[in-house]
Specification:
Layout lengths: L4 E5 L4 H12 L3 E6 L2 H8 L5 E5 L5 H15 L2 E6 L14 H29 L3 E5 L12 H20 L6 E5 L8 H6 L15 H14 L3 E2 L5 H10 L1 H12 L2
Parallel strand pairs: 1-2, 1-4, 2-3, 4-5, 5-6, 6-7
Helix pairs in contact: 1-2, 1-7, 3-4, 4-5, 8-9
Length: about 250
């Protein structure tokens, strides 16, 4: 059993749950953080080295307390997966303003809170990795996705600046930007509005994302674009934004 701890938010389902179980099986201590208590119990099932924390990432004081408790009682944090997120979709005029605030609070402010709580400890030891989950939606805006796009664009900018502010340290900061991944997060889109453009490309497996992260850490890369066509999608947005929007409008029908 390794002494170092992996700290994972959004660990009650999807990508966070898979990461927690994977690292636990590799012998790491895992601090699994989520507001989904039932999901956390499922994550920790049959894994004695996963400790669960029912914590809201939008509450900085609570996040700081969990980080301090993890370091004191479980072990020094080696790697952080900032994976907590929600994705309700809809037209701007149709979604309540509270939805926009909640999406930003969880998807962006949650990343900020965890980063602020953990980075000083990683920098003090001058080692470790901070992995912030953005999305290809942090580069490519799509109809129905204004709230989600805005939150992920913010994560991309925040993480890029943070990485450059500490480029001379041995702490690695990564920004993960996957296309749609086969996780329960997509169910939130199905329950609200499903963009037809989601059907134009294959949804990738969660394990593909974890593998891409591991490779990016080894290659000392800042941005992680899992999937065969993801990096090209990001480049197409930069080079030919008009063509991207033309396709989106034709696909969605307005």
């Amino acid at each position: 059993m390794k002494d170092e701890t992996i700290f994972i938010t959004g660990a009650g389902s999807g990508m966070g749950q898979l990461a927690a179980r994977t690292y636990a099986e590799q012998g790491y201590q895992v601090a699994a953080v989520d507001v989904n208590e039932k999901g956390l119990l499922e994550t920790a099932e049959n894994h004695q080295n996963i400790r669960t924390f029912n914590t809201d990432v939008t509450d900085f004081a609570a996040v700081q307390q969990v980080v301090d408790e993890t370091e004191a009682k479980i072990g020094p944090i080696r790697r952080v997966y900032n994976a907590a997120a929600i994705m309700p979709l809809g037209k701007v005029v149709d979604q309540d303003v509270e939805v926009f605030h909640k999406v930003m609070d969880i998807n962006y402010n949650g990343v900020v809170n965890v980063s602020k709580a953990v980075m000083p400890k990683l920098l003090e030891r001058n080692s470790g990795e901070l992995v912030n989950f953005a999305s290809l939606a942090g580069w490519v805006p799509i109809l129905y996705m204004a709230a989600y796009n805005a939150s992920k664009f913010a994560v991309v900018a925040f993480t890029e600046v943070l990485a450059h502010e500490h480029q001379d340290s041995h702490v690695k900061v990564l920004c993960v930007c996957p296309p749609p991944v086969k996780t329960p997060l997509l169910d939130q889109a199905r329950d609200t509005v499903w963009p037809k453009v989601f059907d134009q490309g294959d949804q990738i497996e969660p394990q593909d994302v974890l593998n891409a992260i591991s490779q990016a850490i080894a290659d000392d890369e800042l941005f992680v674009f899992p999937g065969k066509r993801t990096r090209m999608g990001q480049r197409m947005r930069r080079w030919f934004p008009g063509l991207i929007w033309k396709n989106v409008h034709e696909t969605e029908g307005f």
